[in-house]
Amino acid sequence: MKKIFALLLSAALLVTLLAACGGQSNDTTDTSGDTTATDTNDTKTDANADMIYAVETGSAGEAAAQEKGWEINSVAAQADALTLRENLWRWPPELRAPGVSVPEGEHGPAREIRLDPRYTVREAMERLFHTVRRGRRGLEHLALRRAALEAEAAALERARRESMAGAAAGNAKNAAAPGPQGMAGTTGVALPGGLPKNVQLFISEDGFALLRGRDAKGNLAARKLAAPHDIWLHADNGPGSHVIIRRAHGGQPVPERTLDQAGGLAACKSWQRDAAKARILYAEVRHVKALRNAPAGTVRVDKVFASREVPVDHDLEIRLLPGA
């Protein structure tokens, strides 16, 4: 009888402990993942919790996060980590708790610091320091990348304006001098010096700037110069150069003549160069993604908005050159 009573008592105690653990885990937000702007695969947060980005005050990462409207806690994570380090002597080395109370100190007022009970206080402190470092690196990388893209966009915009200004000047100059068939002279457009050497510039007869890569690296450079709303072209079912049709904005329509001329330029430097006609794919640059660990110029196209068959006219490579 005593053995049975002891077994029942043990079972009751076990059920009580399990219930207590279950209640504690339900009330504790899991913050074991590193909450950063660059890696969300390890992020585990409560569905109702606000996303917090820990960055260094005054850093480029803080400016980037503020511009994107992210909620920033610039000092909380670092202050908690420093406070824990300052007060480690207060707790046993193997203490695991959902939170600890800290007194007022150099890094903030007296408060309760929430922890993940799966880790010791020291481990929790190290994870906080790690989160701050990753958040700072990620957001600063975003700020630098944004600045680089804005510089490239500004360079291409200057090139486009120079091209359009040259076209207008050429039309005005040649308006009084009819061509062989009574037409005005060809458009004179100066080649902007800001383009990479492996990217060719053409001007369609409708005045659109067309960029074509000379090689694989040129294809990559042309895409980097493009805006997300620009149009990307490539020969279907085989290798070839990438062509970009520059647009002022996403709503700007592109005439069919420009679509065909840009397609012809893509066909002339592709596996279909010797055919009479070639099938060309058209997509917005936003839907063209570079493949990781693949040769330069290799891409994945998520959405094609048109597939057109165009004439392969090698005269376009001369006729559409700036100043031709």
Describe this structure in words.
- With 324 residues, this protein is an alpha+beta fold.
- It is built from seven helices and ten strands.
- Helix 2 (60-68) packs across helix 4 (121-174) and helix 3 (76-86) packs antiparallel against helix 4 (121-174).
Strand order of the largest sheet: 3-4-6-5-7-10
Strand content: 5-15%
C-alpha geometry: elongated
Number of strands: 10
Mean pLDDT: 74
Tally of alpha and pi helices: 7
Largest sheet: 6 strands, antiparallel
Q: Oligomer, anyone? A: single chain
Give the helix/strand layout:
Blueprint: H1 2-27, H2 60-68, H3 76-86, E1 99-102, E2 111-114, H4 121-174, E3 199-203, E4 209-213, H5 216-225, E5 231-235, E6 243-245, H6 256-268, E7 277-284, E8 288-290, E9 299-301, E10 306-311, H7 316-319
Antiparallel strand pairs: 1-2, 3-4, 4-6, 5-6, 5-7, 7-10, 8-9
Helix pairs in contact: 2-4, 3-4
How would you sum up this structure in a few lines?
With 324 residues, the protein is of the alpha+beta class. The protein is 39% helix and 14% strand.
Question: Main traits of this protein?
Answer:
alpha+beta, 324 residues, six-stranded antiparallel β-sheet, two-stranded antiparallel sheet
